[in-house]
Amino acid sequence: MFIQTESTPNPATLKFLPGQSVLPMGTADFPSAEGAEKSPLATRIFAVEGVSGVFFGTDFVTVTKADAVEWDHIKPAILGAIMEHFQSGQPVMAEGAEAASGHAEHTGEDSEIVGQIKELLDTRVRPAVAQDGGDITFHGFERGVVYLHMQGACAGCPSSTITLKMGIENLLRHYIPEVTEVRPVGV
Fold first, then answer.
1. Is residue 105 within 8 Å of 118, Cβ to Cβ?
2. Rounded to two decimals, what is the model's pTM?
3. Which of 27, 56, 91, 118 is the most exposed place for a label (fewest CB within 10 A)?
4. Which string of b and e fits 144-177 if b means at least 16 CB within 10 Å?
5. What's the rounded Cα separation, in Å, for the pair 73 and 28?
């Protein structure tokens, strides 16, 4: 098994490509070791000292490290954990645990606008962000402000504010006049 790695715009995050499916669809975000028991793979990766976050896409694993740790010191152990997992035959997600589809539900008077926002995110934003090892999902829409949740490499990325303001906000405002601003939200 050969696992490729790619850097991301976030220096604290690396993208690992195992060359096979990680999740059949959706994403799974583990911003800390708590909750990782839902995934045998995430549990294995968090066992590597210095790992502070794990994120799964359909064909990649994104790992975020603590600031005090160097990639040169933990990358071989992470590669080993991913390889061991896929060779073990264990599932990526524990039975009963599901990947997230992404967007928060929204009902009410703005549902048509929210539908347009989600469509633009799914077709224009999320594929590009996935290339960088992350995901951006819809969290809410209120009085012209779109709230987005940033995951994987996007969470804590130094360039995420620029991406939100210059890229996503401009895109949404261009296509949907009701959108006036885009803001990130925490979990």
1. no
2. 0.79
3. 91
4. eebebbbbbbbbebeebeebbeebbbebbbeebe
5. 25
Cβ 9 vs Cβ 22: under 8 Å:
no
CB half-sphere exposure, 140, CA atoms < 13 A: 7
pLDDT digits 0-9 by tens, 138-172: 889 999 999 998 888 777 777 777 777 788 899 99
SS3 for 34?
A: coil
Q: How far apart, in Å, are the Cα atoms of 46 and each of 1, 9, 43, 78?
A: 21, 22, 5, 9
Q: What is the distance of C-alpha 93 from the center of its chain?
A: 16
Higher local confidence (pLDDT), 87 or 131: 87
Sequence-distant (≥ 6) Cβ neighbours of residue 69 within 8 angstroms: 49, 50
